[in-house]
Amino acid sequence: MPDSISNTLRTDVPPAEPSKKVGALKPELLLKENHHLCPGCGEPLVVRMMLEALESLAAQQRTIGVLGIGCYTAFGSTLDVDLVQALHGRAPSLATGVKRMRPEAMVFTLQGDGDMVNEGLQEIIHTAARGESVTCILLNNGVFGETGGHMTATTVLGQRTKNSLDGRDAAYHGYPILIGDLLAQLQGTAYAARGSVHSAAGVASTGRMLKRAFESQARGEGFSFVEVLTMCPTGWFIPTAKGPEYLNEVMGEVHVTGELKADGVLTTTEQLRERGAAKD
Amino acid sequence: MTRRLMEGSEAMAEASIAAGCRFFAGYPMTPFTELLESFARRLPEAGGTCINAESELEAVGMAWGAASTGARAATGSTGQGLSLMQESFSEMTRAELPMVIFNMARGQGDYFQSTRGGGHGDYRHIVLAPADTQEAVEHTQLAFDLSDRWRNPVLIYGDYLTAHTSESVEIEPMEFPELPEKDWAVDGTLGGTGRSRTVNPLGVDKQSAGIDPEALWNRLQAKHDAIEREEVRVETGFLEDAEVVVVSFGGVARFVRHVVRSLRQEGHRVGFVRPVTLWPFPYEAVAAAAESASRVAVLEQNAGQMIDDVKIGVLGRAPIVAIGGISTDPSGFGVGDILDPAVIHERIRGVLSDA
Predict the structure, then answer these.
(1) Predicted structure pTM score
(2) Residue B306 pLDDT > 60
(3) What is the CATH number of domain A27-279?
(4) Which residues sit opposite A225 in a β-bridge?
(5) What is the mean pLDDT of residues B183-201?
(6) Chain B residues with beta carbon closer than 8 angstroms to that of A126
């Protein structure tokens, strides 16, 4: 029996360390635990996984983040990493300037779907095509959460928002953009993945994707991208507790999770969906 | 020291590098294109980076990111391209970031854009308007100094002639008083220490509960008031006993200066005021010149923009006449008939005969 297991299982001696409630641990790179985001919001989970990924790579003192404009902008005062606040949609360009002047730094952007896929679509595509050595993180909840739940470019068909009251209709509003597929196919993109924080397994998987993206950046492979589906019960007008289920069943059906480009292998969202269907 | 025959664009790029500029991003547009070409050729040799940005929006964003790390950074375009960058200029000013902006304008129709801005909110840029290539070299270096000193963008207002005229210039790194340390810039090394930094236009501080826009905007206003008191630059000539004072700026003022000199030789009582900084505008110099003049003439290559500032300066002390106007060749690049000493001579003579 390996030591780690035997130590855990032994009950006849006191544990080497007092037991800890994992959920109560604050990432080292967070100045305080409080945040002002809504109950049930998925964004703080992603921020936590991102910080833990940076900590696991010992990148605490070589990280520069660029924040977009959205609810997550509020983390600007509590993340204990160097930050630059960008305009809506412009974070990838700022990150480009930062990285070119500080090539030794781990540079990330944190953007929402309104920020990245609506306002800043051209910037994220060009930055990826350039193979810019930065990691762009998309918090995708399919709505403009900060303005109170309006349709974005990733809102799925049928989804009700404040300006698509009868649900997104393809004939009237057009189709959602699968941004991960767009970026993954570009030669400059080294790593692209889509996670979701609707479940504990999804959170853990998202953490691994973020870590792989940062590792790819550290190796200088090119552009890296992690999209994470996040709950926004406030913007979706549903009970808080229903958030994860809605995320998985409404958003997750279209923006299927999995790695879209890793180790040179390209996988489309459609292929991920087929694999998921085969498993079911 | 050797003088070299250089085109304005190349000279400004060289002067930028001499001033320590290590980052440039731009998008081609006539007559700015050669400045981008010069940076693209020279910056990598000097250990810097020049990115051929995919749009003006991205060019200014990249320069913003570079400036956030404390690097001396610049971008530019023509007024048309700068229109696209206005949102960022406004926000960068609130983030108190130094940056140098080159406007190789098509004529002088961007006076309002440069001095009032097309962006949102209360903000100001220092605007330098060189009259010739040697001055463009000096203004370029001054711009990097002023922008670091005040932590504020500085715009250089040039034009087709500034960009494309070849003159004999001397590019020597200029000496400036010591600058404060960039203790606000991000390099990534302070993460996890509780002292990490944030460069932002919102008034956010680390650990703060929210934003305090009023305090931020009051602080910026106080800074802009101080710039108005301390950074006015102006060139005047032949003002003593002048009956007619001609106000003009930039490349056009070079023609005016030449014509005023020759009118003086002919015995006419005419002088000139050339705002070197368009913001802060030399209101006091204009007021003093108007005190004893019977006419103030404004010669600008647009439909009448700087004349608003001249009116504020003159404040009724003398009648003001506009003797400039829109003037461009069919290319639209602002090289029109007004850029001719004979034309300017005639227009000033017209004011003298009325006076």
Answers:
(1) 0.94
(2) yes
(3) 3.40.50.970
(4) A136, A192
(5) 96
(6) 54, 58
